[in-house]
Amino acid sequence: MKMYSVIYVLFKIIGKQVRTKLSQAFNHWLNVPEDKLQIIIEVTEMLHNASLLIDDIEDNSKLRRGFPVAHSIYGIPYVINCANFVYFLGLQKVLTLDHPDAVKVFTSQLLELHKGQGLDIYWRDTYTCPTEEEYKAMALQKTGGLFGLAVGLMQLFSNYKNDLKPLLNTLGLFFQIRDDYANLHSKEYSENKSFCEDLTEGKFSFPTIHAIWSRPESTQVQNILRQRTENVDIKKYCVHYLGVTTVLLS
């Protein structure tokens, strides 16, 4: 099937397998049978990579890991269909785990992921700056959703029943805020994605939210975000302003 070959190529480009390594690390505690663990890892990576294909469309991204985004090559309709196909392929694999609660965990965490992504898009498109606490809650849904999926499925096959949600929440926040910081401050990120892509997208990331609420009398950051600018000088000025206004980018 041609779709399989395209998906394989796309996933080979965009995948970093962070969630695979995370699942393997958690398995030191959980001791999940290897056959079950492998299915869970495959499902988590599939869903993560499929969500990135959709994210790039929703964010109007140009690059992913230094390569043109998939929809710029294959077209938006085809990439959406591929991503949706992978979501259901993941569900099919979850059924092979043969556990009565596996589908419940799967659907619950995917709903959380989409709720979080929906909030992120809503704030961006309505120019609504959330509070830091609102942003953190969104990040726990958006980024923590797949962490919760992997560990939630693993615990179905483990005797370790301690509540790992606090640790997963901390990891989810760390990954999201680190990603926000790297988007504005990392040379490697600029080369792989584009320079300060979040500013061009008009996204309320953690550094911009922190700056806005630190100096509510100033509207400079909001004005720049509204422009959806690709002007490098304006974006450099915004990063400088964030560094002066807060300690986050110093």
Automatic annotation (TrEMBL):
Protein name per UniProt: Geranylgeranyl pyrophosphate synthase
Gene Ontology terms describing biological process: isoprenoid biosynthetic process
InterPro entries in the record: Isoprenoid_synthase_dom_sf (IPR008949), Polyprenyl_synt (IPR000092), Polyprenyl_synt_CS (IPR033749)
EC number: 2.5.1.1, 2.5.1.10, 2.5.1.29
Reaction(s) this enzyme catalyzes, per UniProt: isopentenyl diphosphate + (2E)-geranyl diphosphate = (2E,6E)-farnesyl diphosphate + diphosphate; isopentenyl diphosphate + dimethylallyl diphosphate = (2E)-geranyl diphosphate + diphosphate
SUPFAM superfamilies tied to this protein: Terpenoid synthases
Cofactor: Mg(2+)
Assembly: Homohexamer; trimer of homodimers.
EC class name: transferase
Source species taxonomy: Eukaryota, Metazoa, Chordata, Craniata, Vertebrata
Family of the protein in this entry: Belongs to the FPP/GGPP synthase family.
Pathway(s) where this gene product acts: Isoprenoid biosynthesis; farnesyl diphosphate biosynthesis; farnesyl diphosphate from geranyl diphosphate and isopentenyl diphosphate: step 1/1; Isoprenoid biosynthesis; geranyl diphosphate biosynthesis; geranyl diphosphate from dimethylallyl diphosphate and isopentenyl diphosphate: step 1/1; Isoprenoid biosynthesis; geranylgeranyl diphosphate biosynthesis; geranylgeranyl diphosphate from farnesyl diphosphate and isopentenyl diphosphate: step 1/1
